[in-house]
Amino acid sequence: MEETTRPAIPDTLASVSTSAGSAQLAPTANDTPAGLTSAGSAQLAPTANDPLSVTAALELAKGLLENISLSIIGEVSELSDKPGYRAVYFTLSDQASALPCVIWRNVYDRQGLELRQGMLVEVTGRFTLYAAKGRMNFDVRIIKPVGEGDLRVKVAALARKLEAEGLMAASRKRPIPRMPERVGLVTSPRGKAVHDVLRTLRRRWPLAEILLAGVAVEGDNAPEQMIMGLSHVQANSPEVILLVRGGGSYEDLMPFNDERLARAVAASPIPIVTGIGHEPDTSIVDMVSDFRASTPTAAAEQVSPDRTELMAWLLDCAKRIDSDLISYFDRLSERLSRQATHPVFTDNEHMLRSRLLSLEHSQQRLLLAGDNLTTPFAAAISRLAAQLQALSPIQVLARGYALATGADGRLIRRVSNTEPGANLTVRLVDGSLVTEVRAVIPESMQTAFNYPEQTIPADADINPDGPTIHS
Fold first, then answer.
1. pLDDT tens-place string over residues 106-165
2. How far apart are CA 355 and CA 322, in angstroms?
3. Is 82 helix (H, G, I), strand (E, B) or coil?
4. CA distances (Å), 101 to each of 88, 91, 143, 145, 191, in order?
5. How many helices (H) and strands (E) does the chain have?
6. Cα 279 to chain centroid, rounded
7. For residue 61, what pLDDT is reported?
8. What is the pTM of this model?
9. Can you tell me whether residue 72 is helix, strand or coil?
């Protein structure tokens, strides 16, 4: 069982009150308790010479006890809280005595308290006496913790509240970097915890840069200072933050159960590892952090790799890389060997052979198609060629005509275009003559010189008005 420091239980454990003011616990011969009933022939006001029966005595005690309301302080022991039972049974004890107690299930559930062995509580209720068995219990109507127990109830209520909001959900917790370059540290600058963390980080991971925020971790101002410390460290962008302190009593650790601090830790954009040296208890801040370590040293170990383990890991990585590279190059070599035997690389005409065959086939088809395409047009082509031949000036010259041009190369069409003494070039079918004009004879004077008449063919492409020189 956890060892805790309990407040001393006062010698006077009961404060007695009744609806009628005060009541004496030991009645006298003249006292008749109100509401007391008798069974059989039991006398209600006994004297020294008139003894009571067992039933009458128990009824007398029952009437006296059940009209008294008491508040009692004691330690919970022999707790029996079984699901489905209508009541919770426990024993309330101090250094010398023990009192069996019962609290009905509906009353217990309204208290918002979870009883534990060894818890110091204050109960309010009245005694009940079961006359048939002569057994007495204390019927509890109100129960509340005393001292540390009261703090635990408040912490448990806050834990349930934050859990209902989802701040403790496992899905919110982020992974902790194993080899961070910058580590934030929020703790007391004078406690043992800061030296434990720094020594551990220097030994395991000396490459890390430490950002220290010295704050109070105990006292009324501690939550506010720790919130400010977290804010300052977060502004310098570490990869992880350690929030730690050494051990202490439950009351000393209450700043880590502060709601404001818990919400600041839950809202941190950077993972937070807590290391609060109070192993039996878990604080609210532990519950909402990304990782809870049992001590400051354990928190430092969580964010730093062990040097021996790191070297072993690096050697293992090197071996795997070496093995993977060898396998990779072996596969490449095998692929290259297979590709080297491919016909593309062994036969220069492999890729062109099918194309050449296709080209030759297309050429033969084109030649065959060409003959078929020109045959329907052969007759028309011959006819057009004959027409062109008939219209050719060369053919006209072949029939005995000539063309005369002047010295400037212009065609002489009329006798008026030349004059005697002019040199003319006469074009015949087989060559040209250079002549001199001796005389110009107009058409009207042609018969006087007895020139034989010539008939110009109708289809001749010669201007009849031009001069004609006969050979």
1. 999 888 788 888 788 899 999 998 888 888 899 999 998 886 666 777 888 899 999 999
2. 47
3. coil
4. 8, 6, 11, 16, 45
5. 13, 13
6. 34
7. 84
8. 0.45
9. strand
Q: CA–CA separation, 63 vs 81, rounded Å?
A: 29
H or E, element range at 369: helix 350-374
Give residue for tokens 């005409």.
Answer: 349
pLDDT category at 447 given cuts 50, 70, 90 is low
Question: E-assigned strands of 324-436?
Answer: 403-405, 423-428, 431-436
pLDDT of residue 291: 96
Which secondary-structure segment (H or E) carries 388? helix 378-390
361 phi/psi in degrees, rounded to 5: -60, -40
Helix axes 259-266, 148-164, angle to 10 degrees: 30
pLDDT tens string 214-262: 999 998 899 999 999 999 999 999 999 999 998 777 778 889 999 999 9
Among the ranges 204-208, 280-284, 364-368, which has the highest mean pLDDT value? 204-208
What is the CB neighbour count within 10 angstroms for residue 191? 18
Contact 284, 260 (CB under 8 A): no
The closest of 436, 440, 441, 416 to 425, measured between CA atoms, is 436
Q: Cα–Cα distances in Å, from 322 out to 115, 241, 309, 317, 330?
A: 61, 36, 20, 9, 12
Task: State yes or no: pLDDT of 34 exceeds 70.
Answer: no
Helices (H), 215-306: 222-234, 259-266, 284-288, 296-302
* Proportion of the chain in helix, strand, coil states, percent, rounded to 5: 40, 20, 40
* Cβ neighbours for 281, distance < 8 A, ≥ 6 positions apart: 250, 253
Residue 21 in this model has a pLDDT that exceeds 80: no
**Between residues 218 and 33, the one the model is more confident about:** 218
CB atoms closer than 10 angstroms to residue 389: 10
- C-alpha count within 13 angstroms, C-beta hemisphere, residue 351: 5
Are 179 and 305 in contact by the 8 Å Cβ rule? The answer is yes
Distance CA 445, CA 196 (A): 148
Cα–Cα dist 272/262, whole Å: 11
| CATH architecture of the region 154-305 | 3-Layer(aba) Sandwich (3.40)
Q: Residues 407, 411, 415, 416: is their CA dihedral positive or negative? A: negative
Domain spans of the chain? 154-305, 391-449
Cα 150 to Cα 87: distance, rounded to the nearest angstrom? 23
